[in-house]
Amino acid sequence: MILYPAIDLKDGVCVRLMHGRFDAVTRYDDDPAARLAAFAAAGADWAHIVDLDGAEAGRAMQHRLIGELAAAIDIRIQSGGGVRSADDVQALLDAGVARVVVGSLAVSQPETVLSWLDRFGPDRLTLAIDVKADGERWVPALKGWTEAAAVDLWAALDRYPAGTAKHLLVTDVGRDGALTGPNLDLLAEIHQRRPDLWLQASGGVADLSDLTGARSVGACGVIVGRALYEGRFTLEDALEAARA
Asked: Annotated catalytic sites, by residue?
Protein backbone atom coordinates (compact mmCIF):
# COMPACT_ATOMS: atom_id res chain seq x y z
CA MET A 1 0.00 0.00 0.00
CA ILE A 2 1.28 3.46 -0.91
CA LEU A 3 1.25 6.26 1.64
CA TYR A 4 0.63 9.72 0.21
CA PRO A 5 1.57 12.47 2.67
CA ALA A 6 -0.50 15.49 1.71
CA ILE A 7 0.12 19.15 1.07
CA ASP A 8 -2.96 21.31 0.58
CA LEU A 9 -1.95 24.67 -0.90
CA LYS A 10 -3.90 27.84 -0.25
CA ASP A 11 -2.34 31.22 -0.95
CA GLY A 12 0.99 29.44 -1.40
CA VAL A 13 1.14 27.89 2.09
CA CYS A 14 0.25 24.50 3.57
CA VAL A 15 -3.18 24.30 5.19
CA ARG A 16 -5.89 21.78 6.09
CA LEU A 17 -9.63 22.19 5.84
CA MET A 18 -12.21 20.83 8.28
CA HIS A 19 -15.00 18.87 6.56
CA GLY A 20 -14.04 20.45 3.26
CA ARG A 21 -15.04 23.94 4.36
CA PHE A 22 -13.03 26.81 2.95
CA ASP A 23 -14.02 28.94 5.95
CA ALA A 24 -12.51 26.36 8.35
CA VAL A 25 -8.81 26.56 7.49
CA THR A 26 -5.86 25.64 9.71
CA ARG A 27 -2.52 27.01 8.53
CA TYR A 28 0.48 24.75 9.15
CA ASP A 29 3.50 25.63 7.00
CA ASP A 30 4.68 28.73 5.16
CA ASP A 31 7.21 26.74 3.14
CA PRO A 32 5.68 23.89 1.08
CA ALA A 33 9.06 23.14 -0.52
CA ALA A 34 10.62 22.45 2.88
CA ARG A 35 7.67 20.26 3.84
CA LEU A 36 7.89 18.29 0.60
CA ALA A 37 11.65 17.88 1.00
CA ALA A 38 11.05 16.53 4.51
CA PHE A 39 8.61 13.97 3.08
CA ALA A 40 11.27 12.82 0.63
CA ALA A 41 13.97 12.71 3.30
CA ALA A 42 11.75 10.52 5.47
CA GLY A 43 11.53 7.98 2.66
CA ALA A 44 8.19 8.79 1.02
CA ASP A 45 8.01 7.78 -2.64
CA TRP A 46 4.88 9.83 -3.32
CA ALA A 47 3.21 13.02 -2.15
CA HIS A 48 -0.32 14.28 -2.75
CA ILE A 49 -0.57 18.01 -3.50
CA VAL A 50 -3.85 19.88 -3.91
CA ASP A 51 -4.38 23.35 -5.33
CA LEU A 52 -7.19 24.39 -2.97
CA ASP A 53 -7.43 27.81 -4.54
CA GLY A 54 -7.93 26.13 -7.89
CA ALA A 55 -10.53 23.74 -6.49
CA GLU A 56 -12.47 26.66 -5.05
CA ALA A 57 -12.13 28.91 -8.11
CA GLY A 58 -12.70 26.22 -10.71
CA ARG A 59 -9.48 26.98 -12.59
CA ALA A 60 -5.77 26.37 -12.14
CA MET A 61 -4.33 28.78 -9.58
CA GLN A 62 -1.13 27.24 -8.19
CA HIS A 63 -0.06 24.82 -10.90
CA ARG A 64 3.11 26.85 -11.52
CA LEU A 65 4.15 26.40 -7.88
CA ILE A 66 3.29 22.70 -8.02
CA GLY A 67 5.47 22.36 -11.12
CA GLU A 68 8.33 24.11 -9.34
CA LEU A 69 7.99 21.67 -6.44
CA ALA A 70 7.97 18.70 -8.80
CA ALA A 71 11.13 19.95 -10.51
CA ALA A 72 13.01 20.74 -7.32
CA ILE A 73 12.40 17.68 -5.14
CA ASP A 74 13.01 14.01 -5.93
CA ILE A 75 9.59 12.58 -5.08
CA ARG A 76 6.70 11.50 -7.29
CA ILE A 77 3.77 13.89 -7.04
CA GLN A 78 0.09 13.21 -7.50
CA SER A 79 -1.65 16.55 -7.85
CA GLY A 80 -4.93 18.20 -8.73
CA GLY A 81 -7.29 21.03 -7.93
CA GLY A 82 -8.58 23.32 -10.65
CA VAL A 83 -7.94 20.79 -13.45
CA ARG A 84 -10.54 21.72 -16.06
CA SER A 85 -8.97 20.96 -19.44
CA ALA A 86 -6.62 18.63 -21.26
CA ASP A 87 -4.19 21.55 -21.36
CA ASP A 88 -4.21 21.64 -17.53
CA VAL A 89 -3.40 17.92 -17.46
CA GLN A 90 -0.65 18.31 -20.03
CA ALA A 91 0.86 21.29 -18.22
CA LEU A 92 1.11 19.42 -14.93
CA LEU A 93 2.59 16.34 -16.60
CA ASP A 94 5.07 18.50 -18.52
CA ALA A 95 6.04 20.18 -15.23
CA GLY A 96 6.99 16.81 -13.75
CA VAL A 97 3.84 15.75 -11.92
CA ALA A 98 3.62 11.94 -12.09
CA ARG A 99 -0.15 11.64 -11.86
CA VAL A 100 -2.88 14.25 -12.26
CA VAL A 101 -5.97 14.20 -10.07
CA VAL A 102 -9.26 14.99 -11.80
CA GLY A 103 -12.06 15.86 -9.41
CA SER A 104 -15.39 17.47 -10.27
CA LEU A 105 -15.14 16.77 -13.99
CA ALA A 106 -14.78 13.05 -13.31
CA VAL A 107 -18.42 13.18 -12.16
CA SER A 108 -19.90 16.03 -14.20
CA GLN A 109 -18.16 15.39 -17.54
CA PRO A 110 -17.25 11.68 -17.71
CA GLU A 111 -17.03 11.60 -21.52
CA THR A 112 -14.39 14.32 -21.42
CA VAL A 113 -12.42 12.53 -18.73
CA LEU A 114 -12.71 9.22 -20.59
CA SER A 115 -11.09 10.94 -23.57
CA TRP A 116 -8.26 12.13 -21.29
CA LEU A 117 -7.78 8.60 -19.97
CA ASP A 118 -7.47 7.41 -23.55
CA ARG A 119 -5.07 10.22 -24.46
CA PHE A 120 -2.79 10.26 -21.43
CA GLY A 121 -3.21 6.69 -20.19
CA PRO A 122 -4.98 5.41 -17.06
CA ASP A 123 -1.79 5.38 -15.01
CA ARG A 124 -1.34 9.16 -15.41
CA LEU A 125 -4.75 10.15 -14.04
CA THR A 126 -6.52 9.63 -10.73
CA LEU A 127 -10.28 10.02 -10.55
CA ALA A 128 -11.08 11.84 -7.31
CA ILE A 129 -14.63 11.57 -6.04
CA ASP A 130 -15.40 13.40 -2.81
CA VAL A 131 -18.63 12.21 -1.23
CA LYS A 132 -21.11 13.33 1.39
CA ALA A 133 -23.71 11.15 3.07
CA ASP A 134 -27.30 11.83 2.02
CA GLY A 135 -29.33 9.40 4.06
CA GLU A 136 -28.21 5.98 2.83
CA ARG A 137 -26.77 7.42 -0.39
CA TRP A 138 -23.27 8.68 -1.07
CA VAL A 139 -23.43 11.78 -3.25
CA PRO A 140 -20.37 13.31 -4.92
CA ALA A 141 -19.53 16.86 -3.85
CA LEU A 142 -18.43 19.13 -6.69
CA LYS A 143 -16.70 22.47 -7.24
CA GLY A 144 -14.61 22.53 -4.10
CA TRP A 145 -17.31 20.62 -2.19
CA THR A 146 -19.80 23.48 -2.61
CA GLU A 147 -22.32 21.63 -4.82
CA ALA A 148 -23.91 18.17 -4.88
CA ALA A 149 -23.95 15.98 -7.98
CA ALA A 150 -27.17 14.79 -9.59
CA VAL A 151 -26.02 11.15 -9.38
CA ASP A 152 -24.79 9.00 -6.53
CA LEU A 153 -21.31 7.50 -6.18
CA TRP A 154 -22.20 4.17 -7.79
CA ALA A 155 -23.78 5.76 -10.84
CA ALA A 156 -20.72 8.00 -11.21
CA LEU A 157 -18.41 4.99 -11.14
CA ASP A 158 -20.57 3.07 -13.61
CA ARG A 159 -19.60 5.66 -16.22
CA TYR A 160 -16.06 4.25 -16.13
CA PRO A 161 -16.25 0.61 -17.27
CA ALA A 162 -13.53 -1.77 -16.16
CA GLY A 163 -10.35 -1.12 -18.13
CA THR A 164 -10.91 2.58 -18.74
CA ALA A 165 -9.64 3.95 -15.42
CA LYS A 166 -7.11 2.62 -12.94
CA HIS A 167 -6.75 4.96 -9.95
CA LEU A 168 -9.65 6.10 -7.77
CA LEU A 169 -9.36 8.46 -4.81
CA VAL A 170 -12.42 8.68 -2.55
CA THR A 171 -12.75 11.22 0.25
CA ASP A 172 -15.51 11.09 2.85
CA VAL A 173 -15.89 14.84 3.27
CA GLY A 174 -17.53 14.38 6.68
CA ARG A 175 -14.31 12.85 7.99
CA ASP A 176 -11.80 14.99 6.14
CA GLY A 177 -9.51 16.76 8.59
CA ALA A 178 -11.54 15.50 11.54
CA LEU A 179 -9.20 12.72 12.82
CA THR A 180 -12.15 10.36 13.28
CA GLY A 181 -10.74 7.43 11.30
CA PRO A 182 -11.39 6.50 7.68
CA ASN A 183 -14.78 5.20 6.58
CA LEU A 184 -13.86 1.53 6.35
CA ASP A 185 -17.40 0.38 5.48
CA LEU A 186 -17.50 2.71 2.49
CA LEU A 187 -14.03 1.68 1.37
CA ALA A 188 -14.93 -1.99 1.65
CA GLU A 189 -18.08 -1.50 -0.44
CA ILE A 190 -16.18 0.37 -3.13
CA HIS A 191 -13.56 -2.37 -3.29
CA GLN A 192 -16.25 -5.05 -3.46
CA ARG A 193 -18.10 -3.29 -6.27
CA ARG A 194 -15.04 -2.14 -8.24
CA PRO A 195 -12.07 -4.42 -7.51
CA ASP A 196 -10.56 -3.33 -10.85
CA LEU A 197 -9.77 0.13 -9.45
CA TRP A 198 -6.71 0.90 -7.33
CA LEU A 199 -8.47 2.58 -4.44
CA GLN A 200 -6.93 5.43 -2.46
CA ALA A 201 -8.55 6.31 0.86
CA SER A 202 -8.77 9.89 2.11
CA GLY A 203 -10.34 11.52 5.13
CA GLY A 204 -10.07 10.88 8.84
CA VAL A 205 -6.74 9.08 9.35
CA ALA A 206 -5.76 9.64 12.98
CA ASP A 207 -3.39 6.81 13.96
CA LEU A 208 -1.38 3.97 12.51
CA SER A 209 -4.18 1.44 12.97
CA ASP A 210 -6.21 3.45 10.46
CA LEU A 211 -3.61 2.64 7.82
CA THR A 212 -3.74 -1.08 8.44
CA GLY A 213 -7.53 -0.87 8.60
CA ALA A 214 -7.72 0.78 5.19
CA ARG A 215 -5.40 -1.83 3.73
CA SER A 216 -7.49 -4.65 5.21
CA VAL A 217 -10.58 -3.53 3.26
CA GLY A 218 -8.80 -3.25 -0.07
CA ALA A 219 -7.23 0.21 -0.24
CA CYS A 220 -4.05 0.39 -2.32
CA GLY A 221 -3.15 3.84 -1.02
CA VAL A 222 -3.94 6.25 1.81
CA ILE A 223 -3.76 10.03 1.91
CA VAL A 224 -2.47 11.36 5.25
CA GLY A 225 -2.59 15.01 6.21
CA ARG A 226 -3.57 16.50 9.53
CA ALA A 227 -2.39 13.53 11.63
CA LEU A 228 1.14 14.07 10.30
CA TYR A 229 1.07 17.83 10.76
CA GLU A 230 -0.10 17.48 14.35
CA GLY A 231 2.40 14.77 15.27
CA ARG A 232 0.01 11.87 15.83
CA PHE A 233 2.72 9.66 14.35
CA THR A 234 5.91 10.12 12.37
CA LEU A 235 6.04 9.77 8.62
CA GLU A 236 8.69 7.09 9.04
CA ASP A 237 6.35 5.00 11.21
CA ALA A 238 3.45 5.57 8.83
CA LEU A 239 5.53 4.44 5.87
CA GLU A 240 6.57 1.32 7.76
CA ALA A 241 2.94 0.54 8.60
CA ALA A 242 1.85 1.07 5.00
CA ARG A 243 4.61 -1.11 3.58
CA ALA A 244 4.38 -3.93 6.15
From this structure: 8, 130
